[in-house]
Amino acid sequence: MSANNISISQILKEAPKNWGRWGAEDELGAVNYLDQIQVLRGIASVQSGRVFTLGCPIARKEGDPVWPGRSQPGHHMTQDHGTYCCGKLQPLGAGLEYADDVIYMAVQGSTQFDALGHVWYDDQVYNGFDANTTIDGMEKCSIMPIAEHGVVGRGILLDVARFKGKKNLDKGEEITLEDLLATAKAQGVTIEKRDILLIRTGWLSVFYNQGSSAFYEGDFNEPGLTYTPELVQWFYDMEIPAFGTDTIANEQTVSCRTGTALPLHGALLRNLGVSFNEINWLEDLAEDCANDNQYTFLYAAAPLKIVQGTGAPVNPVVIK
Amino acid sequence: MSANNISISQILKEAPKNWGRWGAEDELGAVNYLDQIQVLRGIASVQSGRVFTLGCPIARKEGDPVWPGRSQPGHHMTQDHGTYCCGKLQPLGAGLEYADDVIYMAVQGSTQFDALGHVWYDDQVYNGFDANTTIDGMEKCSIMPIAEHGVVGRGILLDVARFKGKKNLDKGEEITLEDLLATAKAQGVTIEKRDILLIRTGWLSVFYNQGSSAFYEGDFNEPGLTYTPELVQWFYDMEIPAFGTDTIANEQTVSCRTGTALPLHGALLRNLGVSFNEINWLEDLAEDCANDNQYTFLYAAAPLKIVQGTGAPVNPVVIK
Amino acid sequence: MSANNISISQILKEAPKNWGRWGAEDELGAVNYLDQIQVLRGIASVQSGRVFTLGCPIARKEGDPVWPGRSQPGHHMTQDHGTYCCGKLQPLGAGLEYADDVIYMAVQGSTQFDALGHVWYDDQVYNGFDANTTIDGMEKCSIMPIAEHGVVGRGILLDVARFKGKKNLDKGEEITLEDLLATAKAQGVTIEKRDILLIRTGWLSVFYNQGSSAFYEGDFNEPGLTYTPELVQWFYDMEIPAFGTDTIANEQTVSCRTGTALPLHGALLRNLGVSFNEINWLEDLAEDCANDNQYTFLYAAAPLKIVQGTGAPVNPVVIK
Amino acid sequence: MSANNISISQILKEAPKNWGRWGAEDELGAVNYLDQIQVLRGIASVQSGRVFTLGCPIARKEGDPVWPGRSQPGHHMTQDHGTYCCGKLQPLGAGLEYADDVIYMAVQGSTQFDALGHVWYDDQVYNGFDANTTIDGMEKCSIMPIAEHGVVGRGILLDVARFKGKKNLDKGEEITLEDLLATAKAQGVTIEKRDILLIRTGWLSVFYNQGSSAFYEGDFNEPGLTYTPELVQWFYDMEIPAFGTDTIANEQTVSCRTGTALPLHGALLRNLGVSFNEINWLEDLAEDCANDNQYTFLYAAAPLKIVQGTGAPVNPVVIK
Question: How many domains does chain B have?
Answer without folding.
Answer: 2
